[in-house]
Design brief:
The protein has one domain. It is about 45% helix and about 10% strand. A 3-stranded antiparallel sheet has the order 1-2-3, covered by helices on one side. The radius of gyration is 14 Å and the shape is flat.
Length: about 80
Amino acid sequence: MDNLLEKVKDFERNIIEDRSYLHRNPEVGFNVPETAEYVKTKLREMGIEPRDCGGESLGNQSAGNGACTGNQVRTILD
């Protein structure tokens, strides 16, 4: 149980660091290339290969057929 608690605490620290970074480096409007790259990097670190789906939308390879359907993430974060 201690190992699980430590993993949760690490995850919480990572979330706080990500949120703090994004708020220190804000982008406004619909053109958010730096935020999109940051999110892509974080997804790759989690073993998820992102794919561009037009604009600032991201999907992942689980769509299977090359289409950007399902499992999309908007990179405009608030």
